[in-house]
């Protein structure tokens, strides 16, 4: 009985993730006209299979953001942020597969954490404006 209650609570929490993402702002409530179940399933598979590329992407991003002279600072920050992104992508991909791709692009876990929907859209290098904000 205890396991059943824990399973029900876990299912309710996972089911509430798209609702929390949709509640982020009301402009994101507009339905995505290009959304299909197949695209949602492929998005889940892509995020599960390519989640590991977040580690080198975020490490490169932070190393370039803080200049190559500060690699000892950029490396641990990149690994921490990359591992966070990896976990978000895997959990989001699993939820996409569990819900059979029914969540539109703007009602996903990625929207909730404000990361790009696809792993290959994640920035590898900072923009010039971001680099100017962090001047030593």
Detailed description of the structure:
The protein has six helices and no strands. With 136 residues, it is mainly alpha-helical. Helix 2 runs antiparallel to helix 4 and helix 3 runs antiparallel to helix 4. It is globular, with a radius of gyration of 17 Å.
Task: Explain briefly what this protein structure is.
The chain is an all-alpha fold and 136 residues long. It has six helices and no strands.
| Structural class determined from secondary elements | mainly alpha
Largest sheet data: none
Oligomer: single chain
N-to-C span: 58 Å
Q: Give the overall silhouette.
A: globular
Compute the number of helices: 6
The radius of gyration over CA amounts to: 17 Å
Number of strands: 0
Secondary structure: helix percent: 55-70%
Overall pLDDT confidence: 78
What is the N-to-C succession of helices and strands?
HHHHHH
Parts with pLDDT < 50 across at least 5 consecutive residues? none
Number of domains: 1
Strand fraction equals under 5%
Write the layout of secondary structure elements.
Elements: H1 2-22, H2 37-49, H3 54-65, H4 71-98, H5 109-112, H6 128-133
Helix pairs in contact: 2-4, 3-4
Notable traits:
136 residues, 6 helices, mainly alpha
């Amino acid at each position: 009985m205890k396991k059943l209650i824990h399973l029900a609570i876990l299912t309710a929490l996972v089911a509430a993730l798209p609702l929390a993402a949709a509640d982020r702002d009301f402009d994101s409530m507009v339905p995505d006209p290009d959304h299909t179940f197949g695209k949602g399933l492929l998005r889940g598979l892509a995020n599960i299979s390519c989640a590991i590329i977040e580690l080198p992407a975020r490490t490169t991003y932070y190393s370039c953001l803080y200049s190559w002279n500060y690699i000892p600072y950029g490396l641990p920050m990149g690994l921490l942020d990359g591992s966070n992104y990896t976990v978000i992508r895997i959990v989001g991909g699993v939820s996409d597969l569990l819900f059979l791709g029914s969540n539109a692009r703007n009602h996903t876990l990625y929207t909730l954490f404000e990361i790009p929907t696809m792993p290959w859209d994640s920035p590898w290098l900072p923009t010039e404006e971001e680099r100017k904000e962090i001047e030593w």
